[in-house]
Specification:
heterodimer; A: alpha+beta; 2 domains; ten-stranded mixed beta sheet; B: alpha/beta; six-stranded mixed beta sheet; four-stranded antiparallel beta sheet; 7 helices; globular
Chain lengths: ~375, ~220
């Protein structure tokens, strides 16, 4: 009989309850979508930040990374020991959470008598290491290519070269001619440099096996990057390991603010949904005084009568929560495509949480039902 | 044998107004009592106190040995469910429940529901073909017959009827009175409030109230 009464209660007030149900569905949809985004945003933002380029720089201890304009790549103290490149397990540049890594050897060479910073590096890693760089021409896919180079946008303007042209690098009379495969636009100091393979740079400067620094693009949150940097520093005490703070700190700050914003919105939506249910139930409580008076006259205890109405609210919250969660999956997908450019996968663990939240919020509608406890059947049955 | 209902010096005040002023009488099990009197004489107040819908200011009202004034909220609910069957002038059916569900509602608050029993009760009041109808789809007389079936479904000790035919036309009044007569013949104890002397004369005894006091008590002339 309880289920029958409940069904009849829901049916008899479907107009009013539909309003509350829409509020619960909307609340559940937005909350489940926000929770999905909140859980996914860390991963998405991390991916976004990885696009900003390398976030860890490893150099020799006490390194002076300025380039020696006298013609020597860097001072000897700046050398990164070769063991660093050889490590390949948990901490080295080949470990699993390193998205891209490349050694750099900087020197100052001359093109047509004009000095220019030349970076010897793994040419195939430049695009991975700097996803935001734009290129006119082609990237170089061969790591140690001896005939191709990339040139920064400003340097290309200065020397009036374009993809397909040749340049001649001169280092203290030692010369090498290279084709320009592409002109890169980094928007930073790299636009003034020429990028060649490490063997070419070493041969040109006669500084074999010299590495000025390593740049690493490490995946993970700001905290995990800092932790990885600490592990690197411990594993290679002869190296100075520096996270690029501007990136990792901005990432941590943005994540924190995004999380706070999402949680604030969830609290606000919960409050608004509760208010809507409350308003509906306040009206229903007034309408139901006569029924409650009659039920009391028939021997119903207030607990049993209000229990019916609470069950009604529970059904309202649960049904709204389930429908809202499904709508939230669609909404989260839309947010993911609009904001992050990729879809966000449903997080099923959010469903029970959202449904419980909606049931609790719907139960806020029980507050006006307190008034029903004071209903005097004799007064109601008199028609007052 | 102890009376089913014992009323001793019953008083009820609403603010400064005395609705009942020292009313005393007994009702034996199986009796049909008509309570009569002008408006404001305290008839409905008396019925409400006996039915546990209201509490007296002083005095005692014992129904089947239970002093209604001493019951708390839970006790009153139990008392109403187990010992009283109400028939109201306004029928007071739940609008969104069918006839059979309205009868089952009384079962639900009493103990467990038995739909077959509820249908049988409706069949006894001549509503076998109206069980799935909502109150809005029933005539006044049919609604009152549903109320009678509801009042009887838990086999109460006492049936309290407050102007049971007050809202009915002559034909339906006759049907309901016939039902009450049948209930009385079956041994049910009935306390019925009525304005109509012709209806009052159907009862075993008539109690007249005036200004909250027992004005006259006499055996009714059987019609």
């Amino acid at each position: 009989m309880f289920g029958r009464l409940l069904w009849k209660l829901l049916r008899s007030n479907r107009g009013r309850l539909a309003v509350a149900l829409v509020a619960v569905i909307s609340g559940a949809a937005v909350i489940s979508a926000l929770l999905t985004v909140e859980l996914d945003v860390s991963r998405k933002l991390t991916q976004e930040f990885r696009l900003l380029g390398p976030n860890i720089v490893v150099s020799g201890k006490n390194a002076d990374q300025s380039v020696d304009t006298e013609g020597v790549g860097t001072r000897s103290a700046a050398r990164v020991p070769p063991e660093f490149a050889l490590s390949n397990s948990a901490t080295g540049p080949e470990s699993a959470n390193v998205a891209a890594a490349a050694p750099f050897f900087f020197s100052v060479t001359r093109v047509s008598g004009t000095p220019v910073v030349t970076a010897g590096t793994w040419l195939d890693q430049l695009a991975k290491l700097n996803p935001t760089w734009r290129i006119q021409g082609n990237w170089i896919t061969s790591r140690d290519d001896a005939s191709l180079s990339l040139i920064g946008r400003k340097a290309a303007q200065q020397f009036a070269v374009a993809p397909g042209d040749s340049i001649v690098l001169d280092y203290n009379g030692n010369q090498t001619a290279l084709h320009v495969a592409g002109v890169i636009d980094s928007g930073a100091a790299d636009d003034n440099q020429i990028f060649v393979s490490l063997p070419v740079a070493w041969r040109l400067t006669r500084q074999p096996e010299f590495v000025t620094l390593w740049q690493l693009n490490v995946t993970g949150s700001g905290a995990s990057i800092a932790k990885y940097a600490a592990q690197l520093a411990a594993a290679f005490p002869q190296c100075a390991v520096r996270p690029v703070r501007a990136v990792t700190d901005a990432e941590a700050n943005l994540l924190g603010r995004t999380r706070l914003l999402i949680l604030s919105m969830i609290v606000l939506i919960l409050a608004l949904t509760a208010l809507c249910v409350l308003a509906t139930m306040a009206a229903l409580a007034t309408e139901r005084r006569a029924d409650v008076g009659l039920m009391k006259a028939l021997g119903g205890t207030i607990g049993r009568i209000v229990g019916l109405f609470l069950a009604e609210l529970g059904v309202l919250g649960a049904a709204g929560g389930v429908i809202g969660c499904v709508a939230g999956v669609v909404l989260a997908g839309w947010i993911g495509r609009r904001v992050f450019g990729t879809s966000i996968a449903p997080r099923w663990e959010i469903f029970p949480l959202t449904i419980v939240l909606m049931v609790v919020v719907a139960m806020a509608g029980a507050l006006p039902l307190q008034r029903l406890g004071n209903v005097k059947p004799a007064v109601i049955l008199r028609g007052e | 044998m102890a009376p089913l209902v014992q009323i001793e010096n019953l008083r009820k005040e609403f603010g400064g107004v005395r609705a009942l002023d020292g009313v005393s009488f007994d009702v034996q099990s199986g009796e049909w009592i008509a309570i009569m009197g002008p408006s404001g004489s305290g008839k409905t107040t008396l019925i409400n106190i006996l039915g546990g819908l209201d509490t007296p200011t002083s005095g005692r009202a014992l129904v089947d040995g239970v002093d209604v004034a001493r019951l708390d909220e839970g006790g009153l609910a139990r008392f109403r469910a187990e010992k009283i069957g109400f028939i109201f002038q306004q029928f007071h059916l739940v609008a969104y429940l069918t006839a059979v569900e309205n009868v089952m509602l009384a079962q639900y608050f009493h103990s467990t529901t038995d739909e077959a029993e509820a249908r049988e009760a409706l069949g006894r009041v001549g509503l076998a073909d109206r069980m799935e109808h909502l109150p809005s789809q029933l005539s006044g007389g049919e609604q009152q017959r549903v109320a009678v079936a509801r009042a009887l479904i838990n086999s109460p000790k006492l049936i309290l009827a407050d102007e049971p035919t007050g809202n009915l036309d002559e034909a339906n009044e006759g049907i309901v009175l016939k039902l009450l007569r049948a209930l009385h013949a079956d041994g049910h104890t009935i306390l019925m409030v009525t304005h109509a002397p012709s209806i009052g004369e159907l009862a075993d005894r008539r109690i007249d109230l005036a200004h909250g006091r027992l004005a006259v008590e006499h055996a009714a002339r059987r019609v």
